[in-house]
Structure formats: structure tokens, C-alpha cells
Predict the 3D structure of the following.
Amino acid sequence: MIIDSHQHFWNYDPIRDIWIDNSMAVLKRNFLPKDLKKIYQINSIEGCVAVQADQSEEETIFLLDQASKNSFIKGVVGWLDIKSSKLNDFLSYYTKYSAFKGLRHIVQNEKDENFMLKSDFQKGLSCLEEYNLTYDILIKEHQMDQAIKMVKKNPNQIFILDHIGKPKISKNVDSTWIKNINELSLNENVFCKISGLVTETKFLKWKVNDFYPYLEVVFNAFGIDRIMYGSDWPVCLLASNFKDTLDILNYYISSFSENEKNKVMSLNAIKAYNLST
């Protein structure tokens, strides 16, 4: 069984989706469950976690609606204003939807170097913990130190690091990224997604073994029980097709035991997000 722990849906809107610039023309169209379902059937993928791409409550409603109509969408990581004084009320409402599993904020775009450490953000994380919801960490390399501090302040909150912290994939693995990954992984409440790698390559060109040094660091740090597969579809299409992205991880774990493969490709995501399969 394979669970894709990270993908997106949208009805393309050039005003709302301004982040999709002309260099990303392939993404300037609708990407909906009917499109992904065909891809999943070809690649024997049984389910997914749909993750927010827009920071609005409407995005959360949209994703939950897609989940209600498509049984292969096992979970939704939505967006709500985690700093809002009304967050508890929002969570009380949205947790009525069984597919609602957690929140994500696009911290990588925040200029405040202490954004995740502010008291209102920390209070929001406490609310997530009360409702047994996850928080996906989307950051760039320079924000890893902030993420480490945030995680240490919230030892009972489940965190999932997206895209292995977005290192720049190059010939030389950055020593600071290695140090930060190792330190972050010491916190047992943090999982790590093998996702979004192909779009961090130089000029979006790559070979499978370009990723092996990074995968080795992540597997050594987090271990077999806290790593999960994610496609990052459709964003991955900027540098690859779906199957080639999937094969990066499949090739790497080809010598693993069946139990180990199952953990990476499905069971860890099911555990972290409390998915019903």
C-alpha cells in the first residue's frame, strides 16, 4: 500500500495564485481529484493527504469538500489563522470533519525570523495539541533554527517537516542543513516528508543519485519510523513527472525489508495523521 502524504488541488486563479509565475506555466491550470485519481491508479497508490496551497479558510473548505467526494483523499492539512484568538472556535467546528487532520502555514514566505516563536503562534499550537491535530512545517533552510526552537517548546505536538527542510540540492550537501536535520530529529514528535526534492535542484535538472546523499542524512537522522513519502503533485511537474518522482524513493529503499518499505510508503503517514484506511 502507498499513501501519498503531500499533494495539492486547485482551480487555477491568476489573481489568487500569483505565486505561480511565468516560469511555472505548467501549473497554470486546474489540478483536481479526477486528474490525480488516474495517476494513482497507474502507480498503485491508494490514498493521499491533500495539503493547502493557499492561505485562506476557503482553501480548507475546498479541500474538505474534495475529500467528501473522493474517498482516496484520506486527510486534509488545511489553513486557518493559527494566530487568531478565535482559533479554538474554528478548530471546534472543523474537527467535525473526519478528514481534517491538521494545519500548515507558509512560513517560508514570512520575513519575521521569530514568526513561529511569537506568543500568539505558540498559543495556536497549544490549541492544535488539544484537538490532536498535526502541524506541517514549511520553511526554508535559514528558518531551521527557528523550527527547532518551536518544536522544543511543544514536545507533545505532532510536527511534520515538509520537503526535508528544502535544502538546495547540489553536489555538496550543506553541513549546516545536516546539523539542523540531526538536531530537529532528536525530537521524537517530528516526522519528515520525503517530498519536494526535484524542485530544489539546480535549473530543475537532476539524476536519481543526486538525492541519495540527502536521503541518507534524513534516514540516519529520523530513522525508519518517522519518514513518509510525498509526491508534491502537481508542483513536482516543474521538474519531473509523477512516476519519476516516486521512483527516486522507490530506488533508494529497494533493499529495505517489506516492513520497512511499508512504514515509509504508508504506515508512518497513517500514524502521524491518524488516517482511516
Summary: The chain has a mean pLDDT of 97. The first helix runs from residue 33 to 43.
